[in-house]
């Protein structure tokens, strides 16, 4: 109910994680169709980059204003910090305070004078109390304490307090907690963007930890805030499966008489010939520049079922040919031995 500086930076990290989920699953999904030249109707989804910019913008974000107040000489307090935010974000649709509400002639007694609200992802409104923001944002670890930790010569301590190295001594003020957290989040995002992520979303079914009990309102709220509704809409509007022509042809070419056992033409031509022979409806397929797109999972399951049946036929054929070869070889050896034995016996007789 009472959110301070700690909850603010935690929610900021959640917004960044949600942003990478949007960019790498939803936006990338639609951009792939554009790259491949596939015609389809784009699905509208909410991009929370506007909220991330509200918090982390280096020139006019909430964290930048907080650092500015912490480094400003003279008497500073949370009132001047909140006043700056109200002036800077007076018209921002994801920020509101008592002052911005008054400007819009909105009466809301639940919003205290020392608080501001951020409309987070999926419409989740969180109220933050600015009391203690400046004190908690200042890194009050004195330089001599960092040097003492460095002098301990322990590798772990030296890695935790690199600023204590006398050779790197600086007269600059130490970075604020918000700046350090923002840098850590930026490093995390850079690391995640270099990977191929797979998401596992955990849903809390009820508040009592009871088996086989689902609270619809609780589940629906989590699905909405996790961005799963947008993900499902984009997936259903597009194609459930896509693969490069080469691997697709290599996997399913055994299903066609023209492509099996060898296909002499290009990969795309081979895939088109294969799918035409299999009589798959044209509305289920889309041919991109480098990939084949299949709309329904049912079509893919049908291809897999046909492939399993065809593999069983080919395995049976291989076994039949091997058994025939082995029996013929054994028969020829026996026949050759019988001829030799008969010749020797007739010669002896």
TrEMBL record:
InterPro entries: IQ_motif_EF-hand-BS, Kinesin_motor_dom_sf, Myosin_head_motor_dom-like, P-loop_NTPase. Residues 1-308 form the Myosin motor domain. GO terms for cellular component: brush border; cytoplasm; microvillus; myosin complex; plasma membrane. Pfam families: Myosin_head. One of its GO terms (molecular function) is microfilament motor activity. One of its GO terms (biological process) is actin filament organization. CDD domains: IQCD. The keyword Transferase does not apply. SMART domains: IQ, MYSc. Keywords: Actin-binding, ATP-binding, Calmodulin-binding, Motor protein, Myosin, Nucleotide-binding, Repeat. Residues 185-207 are annotated as: Actin-binding. PANTHER family: MYOSIN, UNCONVENTIONAL MYOSIN-IA. Belongs to the TRAFAC class myosin-kinesin ATPase superfamily. Myosin family. This is Unconventional myosin-Ia. The lineage of its organism: Eukaryota, Metazoa, Chordata, Craniata, Vertebrata.
């Amino acid at each position: 109910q009472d959110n301070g500086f700690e909850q603010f930076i935690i929610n900021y990290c959640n917004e960044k994680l949600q942003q990478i989920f949007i960019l790498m699953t939803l936006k990338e999904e639609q951009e792939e169709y554009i790259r491949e030249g596939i015609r389809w109707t784009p699905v509208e989804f909410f991009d929370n980059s506007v909220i991330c910019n509200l918090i982390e913008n280096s020139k006019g974000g909430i964290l930048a204003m907080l650092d500015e107040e912490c480094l400003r000489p003279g008497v500073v307090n949370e009132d001047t910090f909140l006043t700056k935010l109200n002036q800077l974000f007076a018209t921002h649709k994801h920020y509101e305070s008592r002052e911005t509400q008054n400007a819009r002639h909105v009466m809301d007694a639940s919003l205290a004078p020392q608080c501001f609200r951020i409309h987070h992802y999926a419409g989740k409104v969180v109220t933050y109390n600015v009391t203690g923001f400046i004190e908690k944002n200042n890194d009050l670890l004195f330089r001599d304490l960092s040097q003492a930790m460095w002098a301990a010569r322990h590798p772990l301590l030296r890695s935790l307090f690199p600023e204590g190295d006398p050779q790197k001594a600086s007269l600059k003020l130490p970075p604020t907690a918000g700046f350090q957290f923002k840098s850590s989040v930026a490093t995390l995002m850079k690391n995640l963007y270099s990977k191929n992520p797979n998401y596992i979303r955990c849903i809390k079914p009820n508040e009592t930890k009871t088996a086989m009990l689902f609270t619809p309102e609780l589940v629906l709220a989590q699905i909405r805030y996790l961005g799963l509704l947008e993900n499902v809409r984009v997936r259903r509007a597009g194609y459930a499966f896509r693969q490069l022509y080469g691997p697709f042809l290599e996997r399913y070419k055994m299903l066609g008489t023209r492509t099996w056992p060898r296909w002499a033409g290009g990969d795309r031509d081979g895939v088109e010939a294969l799918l035409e022979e299999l009589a798959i409806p044209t509305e289920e397929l889309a041919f991109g520049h480098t990939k084949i797109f299949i709309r329904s999972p049912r079509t893919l399951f049908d291809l897999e079922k046909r492939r399993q049946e065809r593999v069983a036929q080919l395995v049976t054929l291989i076994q039949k040919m091997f058994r025939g070869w082995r029996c013929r070889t054994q028969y020829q050896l026996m026949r050759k031995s019988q001829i030799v034995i008969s010749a020797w016996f007739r010669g002896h007789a």
